[in-house]
């Protein structure tokens, strides 16, 4: 059996790993499948599916995170606080299929899903989504 033959039987489109995702009614175009380990020093892992054109507003998480792009294309913009506003910090980061992105704890960022995406998201410790409640410049 060739590598090409194996690839036909093992893609994110047909893998059962991507079954059982639950749509989030508060985030149209987003569905997720989660697990949280019993290890208090563990990580939280989510399988995420995002519809092209959806986005997450500027936010931060309590722990470091890692995103693996299994399918699709997304962008991430980092921000810094400047008084009551958020100011873009650097150029947008584009992540394509096969790319891995890292975000440090408490680092403000957004996400835009430029194509339908399937992601493996790993968060250090228990996950939380905290909106950065200031105006974006």
Q: Count all strands and give the number.
A: 13
SSE ordering = HEEEEEEEEEEEEE
The CATH topology label is Jelly Rolls
CATH architect. name: Sandwich
- As residue ranges, the low-confidence spans are 1-7
Give me the secondary-structure category.
mainly beta
Domain count: 1
CATH class: Mainly Beta
Distance between the termini: 55 Å
Mean pLDDT: 85
What composes the largest sheet?
Answer: 7 strands, mixed
CATH homology superfamily: Jelly Rolls
Oligomer: single chain
- In angstroms, what is the radius of gyration? 16 Å
Helix content: under 10%
Tell me the fraction of residues in β-strands, as a range: over 45%
Question: What would you note in describing this structure?
Answer:
The chain is mostly beta strands and 137 residues long. It has one domain (3-136): Jelly Rolls (Sandwich). The protein is 4% helix and 50% strand. It has one helix and 13 strands; from the N terminus they run αβββββββββββββ. The strands form two sheets. Strands 4, 6, 7, 8, 10, 12 and 13 form a seven-stranded mixed beta sheet that branches. A six-stranded antiparallel beta sheet has the order 1-2-3-11-5-9, with no helix packed on it. β2 (30-35) and β3 form a beta hairpin. The chain is globular. The termini are far apart.
């Amino acid at each position: 059996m060739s590598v090409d033959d194996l690839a036909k039987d093992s893609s994110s489109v047909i893998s059962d790993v991507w079954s059982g995702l639950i749509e989030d009614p508060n985030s149209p175009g987003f569905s997720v499948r989660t697990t949280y380990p019993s290890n208090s020093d563990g990580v939280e892992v989510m399988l995420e599916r995002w519809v092209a054109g959806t986005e997450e507003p500027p936010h931060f998480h309590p722990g470091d995170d890692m995103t693996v792009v299994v399918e699709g294309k997304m962008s991430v913009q980092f921000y810094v606080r400047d008084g009551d506003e958020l100011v873009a910090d650097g150029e947008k980061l584009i992540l394509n299929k096969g790319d891995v992105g890292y975000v440090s704890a408490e680092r403000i960022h957004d996400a835009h899903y430029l194509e339908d995406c399937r992601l493996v998201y790993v968060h250090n410790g228990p996950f939380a989504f905290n909106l950065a409640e200031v105006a974006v410049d």
